[in-house]
Write a structure and sequence with these properties.
Mean pLDDT: 96
Radius of gyration: 14 Å
Strand content: 15-25%
Structural class: alpha+beta
Strand order of the largest sheet: 2-1-3-4-5
Helix content: 25-40%
Largest sheet: 5 strands, mixed
Number of helices: 4
Order of helices and strands: HEEHEHEEH
Low-confidence stretches: none
Distance between the termini: 40 Å
Shape: globular
Length: 131
């Protein structure tokens, strides 16, 4: 799947985002280790701490399907420049894809490609918990 196809999948699911409070719709699409595509959108809640980001929705869907590795993830917003994943999402991406490519895009067509290692240098992982 090309970067453009992955961004298109994120854009399609972005339209289903539930963002009645902020109006900030986000879509995410990822390619898992199996090569399968998983998508997610943000889901807001009147109790703001219960909101779920698009990236974590897509990752949760992949994990529920038995996937444990992210190869690439695309995130799309209606911002210029494209909005990067929040800190919490960066950590969750790291958990499942410490070598993952991260594509951030805007609905206007601007695309930036980076890696989770660039976005989250020295990420925290399970090795810190082993004794």
């Amino acid at each position: 799947m090309t970067d453009a196809e992955l961004v298109a999948a994120a854009a399609a699911v972005r339209e289903r985002a539930y963002a009645p409070y902020s109006g900030f719709k986000v879509g995410a699409a990822l390619i898992a280790g199996s090569g399968k595509l998983y998508v997610g959108c943000n889901v807001e809640n009147a109790s703001y701490p219960l909101c779920v980001c698009a990236e974590r929705t897509a990752i949760g869907t992949a994990v529920a399907a038995g996937e444990t590795r992210i190869v690439r993830i695309a995130v799309i917003t209606d911002t210029e420049p494209p909005a990067s994943p929040c800190g919490g999402c960066r950590q969750v991406i790291w958990e499942f894809g410490p070598d993952a490519e991260v594509i951030v895009a805007s609905v206007s067509g601007l695309v930036q490609v980076t890696t989770i290692r660039t976005l989250l240098p020295a990420g925290f992982d399970g090795s810190a918990l082993l004794r």
